[in-house]
Amino acid sequence: MTGRSHMLIGAATAIAACAGHWLVFSPATIFAAIFGSLLPDLDTERSMLGCRVRWLSRRFAAAFGHRTVTHSFFVPLVGALMVWHFEGLAALRGFWGAIWLGYASHIAADLPTGGCWALYPLSNRRLAFWPYARTGGIQEAVLLMISLGLLMALAFVWTGQVQHVHLPRNIASMA
Ligand SMILES: [Zn+2]
């Protein structure tokens, strides 16, 4: 997926997580998820973040290749466990939790667009999901729209479970 698609999915995932009260909503939380959603592609200089730190992304690409060790669910899992251990559960529901959630959303989004080493170190085979969508192609745009729609529907359902929205009476009478 392109960096922009990853950012949108990262933001939508964080909004859904806030609606479900997994994360505490704040602009910093959403920003953290967007930033986290770009981190796995530090393994290629052709990515949004990688092109800004070429000295790092080139080394990473030479040592491991693209969509390998940085694209494993174990990275955000271990990262989240470390935040929990050192900073406590509250930190996991804020900025740091959002970073790792955004990171995980990137890996999930790469599965139908060519796949990645999602289960490394258990397996160093590229795990790919149907339907295969080419990065930057029309299929990716369709997949992006469906993913965003599902995440927003999830956020809507979770918000509805917590509180029912009532319009103030004066606004309702104007409508
Ligand atoms: Zn990627």
UniProtKB/TrEMBL annotation:
<dbReference type="InterPro" id="IPR007404">
    <property type="entry name" value="YdjM-like"/>
</dbReference>
<protein>
    <submittedName>
        <fullName>Uncharacterized protein</fullName>
    </submittedName>
</protein>
<dbReference type="Pfam" id="PF04307">
    <property type="entry name" value="YdjM"/>
</dbReference>
